[in-house]
Amino acid sequence: MAATKEPDNLDSKFYKPADLFFPAYNNIGLTFDDLTLATQYSEILPRNTQLDAVLAEGLHLTIPIISSDMDTVTESRMAIAMALNGGLGLIHYNMPEREQLSEVSRVKNHVHGLIQDPIRATPDQLIGDILLLIEKKRFSFSTFPVVDTQGKLVGLLPGHVVKQRYAKRKVAEALTPRNQVHSISKKELERDPIARADKFFTDHPGIHKLLVVDDHDRLQGLFTMSDVERITQERNAQFKPARDSSFRLLCGAAVSATRNAFGELDRERILAHVGGLVERGADAIAVSTAHGYSKGVGDTVRMLRDAFPKLALIAGNVTSGAGVEYLAECGANSIKVGQGPGSICTTRIVAGVGIPQMTALYVCSRAAHKRRVSIIADGGITKSGDIVKALTQADAVICGGILAGCHEAPGEVMEISGKLYKQYRGMGSMAAMKAGSAARYGHTSDGTRKMAPEGVEALKEVAGSVDRVLTQLIGGLQSGLGYVGAVNIPQLREKARFIRVSPAGQREAAPHDVVELKTGS
Ligand code: XMP
Hints:
Blueprint: H1 9-14, H2 18-24, E1 35-37, E2 53-56, E3 59-61, E4 65-67, H3 76-84, E5 88-91, H4 97-108, H5 127-137, E6 144-147, E7 153-157, H6 171-174, E8 176-177, E9 183-185, H7 193-203, E10 209-213, E11 219-224, H8 225-234, E12 252-255, H9 267-279, E13 284-288, H10 295-307, E14 312-318, H11 321-330, E15 334-337, H12 347-350, H13 357-371, E16 374-378, H14 384-390, E17 396-399, H15 401-404, E18 413-416, E19 419-425, H16 430-434, E20 457-461, H17 466-484, H18 489-495, E21 498-500, H19 503-509
Parallel strand pairs: 4-5, 4-17, 5-12, 9-10, 12-13, 13-14, 14-15, 15-16, 16-17
Antiparallel strand pairs: 1-21, 2-3, 6-7, 7-8, 10-11, 18-19, 19-20
The structure holds xanthosine-5'-monophosphate (XMP).
C-alpha cells in the first residue's frame, strides 16, 4: 500500500483528534489502557525527537518527567538524579521544615562529578583502622584525603600504602604531604567545574585526584579522573541536565496549606518557610494537596503569588476545568491533575471520588489552554506508553511508583524470599500521615481525631538507578513520538488520534499466549 500523508476518510472516522474523541465519551471516565493512539505518516526518527517542557517562566525541563513529592520517592538524591537527566524532583514535606531547606540546598549546591563530602582520614588514625573502614563500608576506593581537626588539608593517603603490611603505622607516617598534593580553590571552579577539572587532568599526566579547598585550605571536595572522564563523555547526551540561569540543578519543593491550632491558614509560617526555600534557590514550589479546588489551597497560592511574584508555582490536585481555572486565577503557573489514579491511592475507594486519568487530563487541558497555564499529569503512570498518552494532554508527568524502587529513592533495601524490595507508601497512608502529611488529606496528625487513610503502604521491587529507569521511559516516549510523526511534545498534542480499546484489545496489547522469560525492561 502506498504511503499517504493525508488520512483518508475512513481513517478519520475511526481515529479521532482529542476534541472529537473525548466529548464522544462524555458519559464515561477513561484512563490510559482504555484508549490507544493511531500511528501516522512519519519522517521522524525517535532519536531525533525533542522532549522539552516549559512549565513556567524559568522552569524549563529537557525531559517532561517529575519525581513525586512523596517521602518514599523524592529527597535530594532523587532530585539530583532527576535534574541531571533533564527532569525535576519535588522534595516532599514529610520532614521538619529545617530539613527540607537543607535538602533543597543539597540539590542546588550539587556539583556534578565533585565528591562534595569525601571520606576523610585523620593523621593519628592507623592504616589498620582505614582497612577496617573499607571492609565495613565496602568502599571500592582506597585513597583518602587527610585533614586535621579543623578540616584543613594535611595530605593525601594514597591507595598503594593502604595495605595490611602497614596496618600498625599511623596515617601521618604514610601520607603524601600537603605541599605535594594537587588542589584547586573552590572559587576557581567557576561555571563549569567539570571542564576545569578535565583541563587539570590533561595538564598533569599521571595525577588522578584533584582536591578542592576553600580560602582557609579546608577540604571542600574531590575530583577523580575516572568520574570526570565519564561525565565528559555523557556531555554528548541528547538530554542535558535541567539547570537554572546560574548553572545549578533545578529543584522543586512541596508545601502544604498548613493550618494553625485554630484551624486557620498559618500564613506567617507558610510565608517564612517558602521564603527560606526560595532563598536556598528552589525553582518551583508545589502546593500539594489531595483536593486543590479548595479555599485553603487557593488562599495559599494567592498569598504566595503576592509575596513572590516571579516564583514558579505548581498547585493541585484537581480533575475539573473549574479547578484548573480557580488555581490559575489564584496565581498558579502549573496545575497538577490526578485524583485517585496513583498506584498506592485508595481515594476512590475510601471517598468515592476521583476521575479516570485520561478523561481528567482532557477536561483540565482545555481549561489550561484557555488560562495559559501548564498542566502536569500526576499518578497512574506504570509504563512509557502511559507517558505518551498523558502528554497528548499534559505538559509533563509526575511519577511515584515507577521511581520508588530506584537506588536514589529514600529508604532501605530489604530482601524477601530472595528478592530485593524498597518501601513505597501513599502520602495518605496512615504511617505517612502520622509522619506529617495529614494536612494534604485535610486531617490533623495530632492523634486526637480519627484519620481515614487514602493510601496504602506497599513494596516496590528494586529497579536499579534513576538513569536506567529514565532511559527506558525516554526510549518509549521517543518511540511514541516517532510513530505519531511528531518531533516534539506540541506536535504530539496536535497529531494524536485516539480510539477506544475493548477488553479484548487490552489483552491483545500486552504479551499473551507465551511463557514470558524476560520482561521488556
Ligand atoms: P504513582 O501511580 O506514580 O502515583 O505511584 C503517585 C501519585 O499518587 C498521589 N498520591 C496519593 N494519592 N492517596 C492518594 O489518593 C495517597 O496516599 C497518595 N500518595 C500519593 C500523588 O499525587 C503522587 O504523585
